[in-house]
Amino acid sequence: MKNAGSFFLVGLPGAGKSTLGRALARHLGFTFVDADQFLVERTGVGIPTIFALEGETGFRVREKAVIDELTQRQGIVLATGGGAVLNEDNRTVLRERGRVVYLFATPDELYHRLRYDKGRPLLQVENPLAKLQELYDERDPLYRQIADDIVDINGRSCTQAIDIFLKELNK
Question: What confidence score (pLDDT) does residue 122 get?
Answer without folding.
Answer: 64
